Amino acid sequence: MMERTPILTILSLLALLFLWAPGNLSAQATLDRLSLHERSDGKGHVFRYHLTEKVDSFAVSQPSPDLIQFMLYSPYLDTLDFTHPQDSEIYSHIDYHKNVDGFGVDIFLSENTFMKATAYPDRDRNDMLLALEYASEEEINKIADQTNFIYWFDFEQPPSMEFVYSEDNALVPLREGKEFNTIVIDAGHGGHDPGSMNRRLGLKEKDIALEVALQVGDYIKEHLPDMEVIYTRDDDTFVELEERGLIATRAKADLFLSIHLNAVRDERAYGSEVFFLGMHRSESALEIMKRENSVVNLEKNGGPVQLGEDELLIYELANAGNIAVSERIAAMVEHQFRNRAMRRSRGVKQAGLMVLWHASTPAVLVELGFISNPNEARYMNSEYGQTILASAIFRAIRDFKQEYDRSIYQNNTASNE
Ligand SMILES: [Zn+2]
Questions:
Q1: How far is the CA of 271 from the centre of ligand 1 (A)?
Q2: Do 191 and 97 share a structural domain?
Q3: In whole angstroms, what is the distance from residue 282 CA to residue 368 CA?
Q4: Is 243 in the same domain as 359?
Q5: Within this chain, do residues 229 and 339 fall inside the same structural domain, yes or no?
Q6: Residue 143's domain spans which residues?
Q7: Number of domains in the chain
Q8: What is the pLDDT of residues 281-307, one digit of tens each?
Q9: How far is the CA of 339 from the centre of ligand 1 (A)?
Q10: Are residues 245 and 191 in the same domain?
C-alpha cells in the first residue's frame, strides 16, 4: 500500500477550503432550508442546503470531537425564509451564524456520537451537501487535534459599542452612591504566580487575564464615564487572594469581577464559564476551586484553603442580596459570551472561591476559556480575541448597570408617591 504523505493525510482529514468555478456571481443566492436525511446505507446522515444559486466556496472543520463547523461563502446570501432541519438524535443543537461573507453553522453532536464531515456541491442542483459519516472515537479525536476553529466573528463587523437610550430607559441621576457605579476588576494571579500555563505556546494565565482586565476597564471608562474602575493589579505583580476581595469590600464596590483562564489535562476542552459564590457546587466547580484557591499556598503555609459548608452557609445568609445580583450579572456575562461573542459557553455555576469570599459585594469570576487548548489559547492571546472577550464582558456590565439603575429609579419613584 502506498504510504500517504502527511500533507495528503491532512488534506483528506481536515478542514477543507474548496473552491470551484463559481456560478453567476452577480445573482443573489437564496438559502430556503436545511434538511437532514439518513443515508440509505445506514452509515450516516446528510444535510442538504437548498440553494437557488451556487455558493462561491465553503469550509468544513471539526475542531472538537462533538463540534462540526460548516461555512458557506456567499456574500449576498438571502436567508430570510430559512427553515431549520427537524430534530435528530445525532445532534444536540445547531447554532447559526450569518455574517457579511455568508452563512455558518456549528453542529453540536450528541453525546457519544462520533461522526466525521465532508462537504460537496450537488452535481445536478445548486445545493450543497454536508455528509456526516459514523467513525471511531479515535479517528475523530485525531481529526479534532489537527483542526482549527472557524471563528465566525472574524467575518463580522467589530463589536459595536453604541448606546441606544430610548425615552423610557434613559438613565436618570439618582441620589449619590445609590447607582451601580464602582467596579473592581481583578486580573487573576500575577508576579510569582503565573496561574495556568500553556508551556508549548509559552502562554501564562496571568498575562492574558491582565490584558483582558485592562481592556474591560478601558471600555468602561470610555463608555460609562460615571463609573469608577479600580484594578486589584494593573501590572505583573502578585496580590494575595484575600486582599483582592478586600479591595472591593473597602471600596464599597458594586461589583467585584475576577478574570481567569481555565486549564485541564484534556487539550480538547474549550469554552467559557462564569462563577459566583455559593453552595450548589458541581463537579467542574470543585476542579476550579482546587486550582484557583491553591494560590493561597504560595503565601501561606498549610494545605489548600477550602471553604467549608458552614462558611458558605454563613456567607449565603449574610450576602443573599449580593448573591442574587452576582447570579444576574453572571447570567448576563454568559449571555454575551454565548450570543454575541459566539463562544461555547459552559454555563453559570456556583463555587466556593476564596477570591470571591472576601468581597462583601456582588462578585463573579469569569474563566475566559482554556489555555490548555492550543486553539483557544492562541485565540485568547490574540488582540482580536481579547477585544471580543473584553467587549462581551463590558456589554454585560453595561446592560446590568442599565437594568439596575432603572430599578432603583423605579423604586425611588414608587416610594415618593
Ligand atoms: Zn486562575
A1: 15
A2: no
A3: 18
A4: yes
A5: yes
A6: 6-154
A7: 2
A8: 556 666 767 767 666 445 444 444 566
A9: 24
A10: yes
